[in-house]
Amino acid sequence: MARRRKKRKGHYHTGVHSSPKAGDCKYRSGWELLYMQYLDDNTDVIGYTYEETIIPYVSNTKTGKQRKYYPDFLVEHVSGTQQLVEIKPSRKLKQRTVTKKLLAAGDWCRANGITLVVITEVELKQMGLLK
Fold first, then answer.
1. Nearest 5 degrees, angle CA 8-CA 6-CA 93?
2. In 3-state terms, what secondary structure has residue 28?
3. What is the domain extent for residue 63?
4. CB of 38 within 8 A of CB of 27?
5. H/E stretch holding 76
6. 57, 50, 60, 56: which is closest to 25 by C-alpha?
7. Count of domains in the chain?
8. pLDDT digit of tens for each residue in the chain (131 aa)?
9. Residue 71 falls inside a structural domain
């Protein structure tokens, strides 16, 4: 009899963050939690949502298959400007799926007057959030 492999639990840091600016937000990585804490401490930020924005994109150009992309954060600033923020390890930025999602996000942002920001470990270190 073939032996079944146990499914490995995700190695990501997950949980719920209670934010004074966004309420209870589930997060799926330690980087997202660090960024939520950063947003909470930033006086320039009025509020933010986590994975509530829905952007449709074509996942398969041959079949035209549509999927939904949920970017990590939509951040609203005191100035009235908004940023759509995606947090990703730099090694994943060249993956085809990620590229398609970010292209769709860029189009959506241009149509809605919002700035797209992609944050990797490089930016997190520059912000002083990662060592």
1. 30
2. coil
3. 45-123
4. no
5. strand 73-77
6. 50
7. 1
8. 555 555 555 567 899 999 999 999 999 999 999 999 999 999 999 999 999 999 999 999 899 999 999 999 999 999 999 999 999 999 999 999 999 999 999 999 999 999 999 999 999 999 999 98
9. yes
